[in-house]
Amino acid sequence: MVDYSVWDHIEVSDDEDETHPNIDTASLFRWRHQARVERMEQFQKEKEELDKGCRECKRKLAECLKKVKELELAEPESGRGELEKLQAEAQQLRNEEKSWENKLEELRKKEKNMPWNVDTLSKDGFSKSVFNVKPEEKEETEEQKEKKHKSFVERYEKQIKHFGMLRRWDDSQKHLSEHPHLVCEETANYLVIWCIDLEVEEKHALMEQVAHQTIVMQFILELAKSLKVDPRACFRQFFTKIK
């Protein structure tokens, strides 16, 4: 049985509950990218506002404590009323500071548990500077695409099927490292068609296994598209991150 628990923390598609096995590959793995970006921007805005509020509170507390220190060094009797007022204000600011820090800590925990996606994976270890930028490709006709796909499958069908049957992350990475030419749209398309054929044949368990590997390949391709790099340049980083 395939373990899908790892995908609980990855946002593969915003449409995944609405897709159907018989639609084309692009629709099957379409992402509501704009909605996700807006959610991330809102989260970042909230984080910045909390950080700003916390820093402002710390600044006010530092100023208040400085005034307390100055009054304590001056004539204590004549400034007792003002000193007590400042001490009370300092205590209130300490409480506010603690409240701000608690909110920031909650937000950090929330951020840590947020699902991964091509936008979050492209940060911290997925810098564009470490990859070669993929050159712009000319638009192919449907006939050219079909011919290219047929030729690719004829040459590498056995290797693609072997990848589709793998279960462990290390094995998948090793296979793609040995056969980097498999990291492409043709492999993803073949796997999708294979999934549909297996479902029609009612081989549900095998279909789920191949579907898992299909999602792996689609995620790598989406990541490469987001970073504008050749997919072969980032699949190792993907496996490092997901493991």
TrEMBL record:
Primary site of residence: cytoplasm
GO biological process: protein folding; protein stabilization
SUPFAM superfamilies hit by this protein: Hsp90 co-chaperone CDC37 (SSF101391)
MF terms in GO: heat shock protein binding; protein kinase binding; protein-folding chaperone binding; unfolded protein binding
Coiled-coil stretches noted in the UniProt entry, renumbered to this chain: 40-113
Residue intervals of the Cdc37 N-terminal domain: 1-129
Location relative to the cell: Cytoplasm
Top-rank taxon, per record: Eukaryota
PANTHER family xrefs: CDC37-RELATED, HSP90 CO-CHAPERONE CDC37
Subunit structure: Forms a complex with Hsp90.
Function: Co-chaperone that binds to numerous kinases and promotes their interaction with the Hsp90 complex, resulting in stabilization and promotion of their activity.
Full protein name: Hsp90 co-chaperone Cdc37
Protein species of origin: Agelaius phoeniceus
Primary gene name: Cdc37
